[in-house]
Every structure is written in structure tokens, then in C-alpha cells.
Write a structure and sequence with these properties.
With 82 residues, the protein is an all-alpha fold. It has four helices and no strands. α1 packs antiparallel against α2 and α3 runs antiparallel to α4.
Length: 82
């Protein structure tokens, strides 16, 4: 198992709503202590075409709430205007 796989598993644990807070804290500590590159939130290095594709999929998905669709559409409009 590579270092990236290990770090990815711990990042998934932190973001999984079904995981206990204790397990999340353990994963945070492992990532910090092992000097893994750990960042939360948007790193700013996402491919804009992939982001736009995900937003378009959200807008067309019948299982997504109207509020989420509206938010996705607003973000798409912002991307297109910049």
C-alpha cells in the first residue's frame, strides 16, 4: 500500500458522516504525525472542466434538491462569466 493510499483512507474517514468522532480524530492525528499532505477544503487545483461537469450533472439530477440545483446553477453562471 502506498503512502497516498494510506493518506486517502484517512481523509475518507474524516469526511465520512458514519464514522465516529474518535475515529476521525485518530485519522487527523495520523495525517499530522506522519507528515502526510493534509488539507481541508478547496485546494484550488481542481480542473475547471471537471467542476463544470459535476455542476451540470447536479442541475440535471432528479434526486438533487431544488436548493442544491440552484446553488450549482449559480456557481456555473459564475464560472462562465469569469
Amino acid at each position: 500500500m502506498t503512502e497516498g493510499n494510506i493518506a486517502g483512507g484517512h481523509k475518507a474517514t474524516i469526511n465520512n458522516p458514519k464514522v465516529s468522532e474518535e475515529a476521525k480524530q485518530h485519522s487527523r492525528e495520523v495525517l499530522e504525525n506522519e507528515n502526510f499532505e493534509y488539507q481541508t477544503g478547496d485546494k484550488g487545483d481542481k480542473n475547471p472542466n471537471n467542476v463544470a461537469g459535476g455542476l451540470k450533472a447536479t442541475v440535471k439530477n432528479p434526486r438533487v434538491s431544488d436548493e442544491a440545483k440552484q446553488n450549482a446553477q449559480e456557481r456555473l453562471n459564475e464560472m462562465e462569466s469569469s
